[in-house]
């Protein structure tokens, strides 16, 4: 059976907030009977763009992660709601606006903090996957339609096909330890969850300090070679997707005609090692 899935590419999100505004445009002051009451103008973020920064000046990297209800297959909110939150056959999880009236405790039932309390309407609310539009034949919800970079997309496929898509594109779920089987998947989540080692390399060319373009940097852990990169024309390099707090690494920095440099790094969080000068 086909179900809806949302795929979010963290590398493509530029924090333009078009998705957030599209969600507001669709739901603020609009009542969708059977789906959800109007969303309040302020306070609710049914699509919430989280931000993280990595590294130290001048090598800093900022990433954004839009977050919605995960439309979990094994949803704790449904277990807590006694019939007032349901999972539809197409995978969408909906809070029944009539049955959930007067139940603020349901906000705490979601481990992803995706449920918001609407004081004026006296109901818990969250992302509906724009089910009122899907039921009219729309092929994507408003936030996905509004994203100018293609950071958000949907797949309406059966589980086997979704597993294949996940494998091919290296998709991950948020907080897999919650064991809720989310139907929202992330691409390039390493920008949020992993670390980098970066730096610059310079050479002394007869008394002139110059950027070491093309210098080769090889990363080792316990003498095992993990990866190798080549510095850009500013002599800058970055080795990404390393686990935080993962111990000691060594970098071998080589350029023909210069003495090889070795730098040791204790990796706790993303690290800019500064400028290494090859003599
Ligand atoms: Fe329920 Fe939270 Fe899962 Fe959404 S993310 S289905 S609100 S438990
Ligand atoms: Fe808002 Fe619809 Fe996107 Fe959910 S799917 S965040 S309700 S626009």
TrEMBL record:
Gene3D superfamilies: 3.30.70.20, Immunoglobulins (2.60.40.10). It is an enzyme of class 1 (oxidoreductase). Its EC number is 1.97.1.2. Keywords: 4Fe-4S, Iron, Iron-sulfur, Metal-binding, Oxidoreductase, Transferase. InterPro entries: 4Fe4S_Fe-S-bd (IPR017896), ET_IronSulfur_Cluster-Binding (IPR050954), Ig-like_fold (IPR013783). One of its GO terms (molecular function) is pyrogallol hydroxytransferase activity. Residues 4-33 form the 4Fe-4S ferredoxin-type domain. PANTHER family: PROTEIN NRFC, PROTEIN NRFC HOMOLOG. This is Pyrogallol hydroxytransferase small subunit. The lineage of its organism: Bacteria, Bacillati, Bacillota, Negativicutes, Selenomonadales. The gene is bthL_3.
């Amino acid at each position: 059976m086909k179900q809806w899935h949302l795929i979010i590419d963290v590398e493509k999100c530029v924090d333009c907030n078009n998705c957030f505004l599209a969600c507001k445009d669709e739901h603020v002051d609009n009542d969708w009977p059977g789906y959800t009451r109007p969303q309040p103008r302020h306070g609710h973020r049914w699509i919430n763009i989280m931000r993280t920064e990595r590294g130290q000046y001048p090598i800093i990297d900022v990433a954004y992660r839009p977050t919605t209800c995960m439309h979990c297959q094994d949803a704790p909110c449904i277990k807590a709601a006694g019939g007032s939150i349901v999972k539809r056959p197409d995978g969408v999880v909906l809070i029944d606006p009539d049955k959930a009236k007067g139940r603020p405790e349901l906000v705490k039932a979601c481990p992803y903090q995706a449920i918001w309390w609407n004081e004026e309407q006296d109901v818990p609310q969250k992302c509906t996957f724009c089910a009122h539009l899907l039921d009219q034949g729309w092929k994507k919800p408003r936030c996905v339609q509004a994203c100018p970079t293609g950071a958000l997309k949907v797949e309406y496929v059966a589980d086997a096909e979704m597993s294949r898509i996940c494998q091919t594109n290296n998709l991950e779920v948020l907080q897999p330890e919650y064991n809720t089987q989310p139907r929202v998947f992330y691409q390039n989540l390493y920008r949020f969850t992993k670390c980098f080692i970066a730096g610059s390399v310079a050479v002394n060319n007869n008394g002139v300090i110059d950027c070491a373009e093309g210098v080769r940097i090889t990363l080792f852990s316990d003498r095992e070679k993990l990866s190798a990169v080549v510095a850009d024309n500013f002599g800058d390099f970055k080795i990404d997707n390393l686990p935080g707090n993962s111990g000691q690494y060594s970098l071998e920095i080589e350029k023909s005609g210069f003495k090889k440099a070795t730098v040791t790094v204790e990796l706790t969080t993303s690290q800019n090692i500064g400028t290494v000068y090859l003599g």
